[in-house]
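User: Before I run my own analysis I want an independent prediction to cross-check against. Here's the chain; please return only the structure tokens and, at the end, one sentence I can use as a sanity check.
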Amino acid sequence: MMTGDERISSGAAYVQGLSLESNMNSIYKMIGYCPQFDALLDDLTGREVLRIFCMLRGVQESRIRQLSEDLAKSFGFMKHIDKQTHAYSGGNKRKLSTAIAVIGSPSVIYLDEPTTGMDPAARRQLWNMVCRIRDSGKSIVLTSHSMEECEALCTRLAIMIKVRRNLEALRQARLSGGFARNPDEQTVPAQMAQQDIDAVKEFVEHEYPNSILQEEYQGILTFYIPLTGVKWSRIFGLMESNRDQLNVEDYSVSQTTLEEIFLEFAKYQREDTRANQ
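Assistant: Structure tokens:
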């Protein structure tokens, strides 16, 4: 829908104030698109493919050669630029497809899993290039199954599991300052008597009223504490000064990862599915 391939069934979307429903022909000039599957002409070289898209984008003839080589160098396939694309590896095809998406300096760039099939070094190189494009003021819409990639590149995130329901869940979680909004994880492992476990619970609830007891198993307690107004140094200080009194054997403090947030939503999805059966 965002690229004009499908008609918008409901809602509205805009690029630079223009509606996708009524101004798609004008919007085509403002967007770049790297599809999930490489749409390349196998019998053409990388240079020829770039030349065609430069001409379609209205790049001046005198600039096409230099621009094509600059893109090939930036995305890391310069030594393959004169090879036919059917001989490219999967990673190099993704690099070429991403390079095509930025031709013409579009204001909005859609990247659909751009690093699929890349080795770690090539993926990092592409990330750096995407960051430079983002920092130049372009808007990038990225879809990815890699939580690591999303954390490295994105400034705003939406997690889609059963689409509408979980987009709403993410919004509510952020507003409440709960699980989805960069909380800290505090784990207190020990084989403690029940009274010691209750004492730890009361202590955490008293010091951090918004904390959530996420898990309790064989003396191991996991709390989620919203970061709002909470300093890590204070958490460590409180635990160290009360450790002996609470009979805590060990503890750790860590920031919740995007992967943990995704898995939490996935868990709710499984629970909803079982409940509806």
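Sanity check: The radius of gyration is 25 Å.
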